[in-house]
Amino acid sequence: MRRVRYYENGGPEVLRVEETEVPTPGPGELLLRTEAVGVTLPVVRKVREGGLALPASVGSEAAGEIVAVGPDVAGFAVGDRVTGLCFGDGYADYALLHAAMASPVPEGASAADAVALVRCGLVALGAYEAARPAPGESVLVTAAASGAGHLAVQLAKARGAGRVVAAVSSVAKADFVRSLGADEVVTYDQESWGDPVDIVLDAVGGELLSPAVAALAPGGRLVAYSSGGGTIEAYDLLVGAKSVIGFQMRLIARDRPELMEEWRRELWALFAAGRIRPCVHAELPLEEAVKAHEIIEGRTNEGKVILRPV
After folding, report:
1. Of 249, 269, 290, which residue sits at a domain end?
2. Closest CA to 121 of 151, 88, 150
3. Average pLDDT over the chain, rounded to an integer
4. What tens digit of pLDDT does each residue of 197-226 get?
5. Residue 303 falls within a domain, yes or no?
6. CATH number at residue 14
7. How far apart are CA 230 and CA 223, in angstroms?
8. Which residues have a Cβ under 8 Å from the Cβ of 247 and sit 6 or more positions away?
9. Are 200 and 215 in contact (CB under 8 A)?
10. What is the mean pLDDT of residues 9-23?
11. DSSP string, the chain
12. Can you give the three-state secondary structure of 127-140, one letter per residue?
């Protein structure tokens, strides 16, 4: 089978496609024939900045058909279509997935739908839930055209937000985020992001944290779920009685799997009802993993970027 690895840290050019043996699932594992693989900014950053022993495989969210089941697995069988987060070879023709991380793909949903919706949707919904929103509150979403951001815009509308503001890097993305239901669109370089909001869902961090806090109304909450780092002045929170909440999906998956499953059900229900739609910016063959990473690093995507091993 083919897989993508990297032997040094750096930009997209360090990714290599190589041949290797198809793995055998161990206890609690499923072997998928991958149909769609998601490309995310945290993974792109990890390839560039390090954090794993080299050479390293690219972990990823994936969807596909189960072709083998390891020992001690219940509830799944060969032929089932599932999606989940693969920690080993994710950019590959075949991927190992822990059964605890697997989620069935409903009838009528494609592998691309599953990859675009489930992982990014869980992050978007979890970040929104972390803000403890009240009906009618206003919400601003940064990186609103990203894989998670474009779903956060839709989820806020579906959950009853009174006003949804989409913050994007370029005015070229305005039509896209408006098509998702955004009531207003702002760009990061604007001096003001408009009328204050009750909630900011921030997937960017870094230099955008200060204007994101400034966009909050008194008593507003910013949910930080990016890997971009950054600092906030305590005084900026104090004067407006504002708060910052950190959200990480890994902790929910580890400590509250029942909540994650509840969120999965809600996402698929909203999808079936046509109230949210995962958007795919590009579907590329595995051999074009470099191009996929270039799109993510360039922040040009409108929706999800997906690799198609098959």
Report:
1. 249
2. 151
3. 93
4. 999 999 998 889 999 999 999 999 999 998
5. yes
6. 3.90.180.10
7. 13
8. 123, 126, 127, 130, 223, 224, 225
9. yes
10. 96
11. -EEEEESS-SSGGGEEEEE-PPP---TTEEEEEEEEEEE-HHHHHHHHH--SPSSEE--EEEEEEEEEE-TT--S--TT-EEEEEESS--SBSEEEEEGGG-EEPPTT--HHHHHHHHHHHHHHHHHHHHT-PPTT-EEEESSTTSTTHHHHHHHHHHTT-SEEEEEES-GGGHHHHHHTT-SEEEETT-S--SS-EEEEEES--GGGHHHHHHTEEEEEEEEE--SS-----HHHHHTTT-EEEE--HHHHHHH-HHHHHHHHHHHHHHHHTTS----EEEEEEGGGHHHHHHHHHTT--SSEEEEE--
12. HHHHCCCCCCCEEE
Residue with the two structure tokens 């669109």? 185
Q: Which residues contact 14 (CB under 8 A, 6 or more apart)?
A: 6, 7, 8, 47
Residue 261: the pLDDT is: 87
Q: What are the two backbone dihedrals, phi and then psi, of residue 109, each rounded to the nearest 5 degrees?
A: -105, 135
75 with 159, same domain: the answer is: no
Instruction: Look at the block and give the residue holding tokens 């050479």.
Output: 55
Q: Contact 165/186 with Cβ under 8 angstroms?
A: yes
CB atoms within 10 A of CB 95: 29
Residue that is written with structure tokens 């999808």 in the block? 271
Domain that holds residue 215: 120-249
Helix 41-49 with 289-297: angle, nearest 10 deg:
100
DSSP sequence for 84-152: EEESS--SBSEEEEEGGG-EEPPTT--HHHHHHHHHHHHHHHHHHHHT-PPTT-EEEESSTTSTTHHHH
Residues 305, 296: contact at Cβ < 8 Å?
A: yes
Return d(Cα 215, Cα 234) in angstroms, integer: 15
**Per residue in 258-272, pLDDT tens?**
898 899 999 999 999
Supply the pLDDT for residue 188: 95
Q: Is residue 64 part of a domain?
A: yes
Cβ(61)–Cβ(39) below 8 Å: no
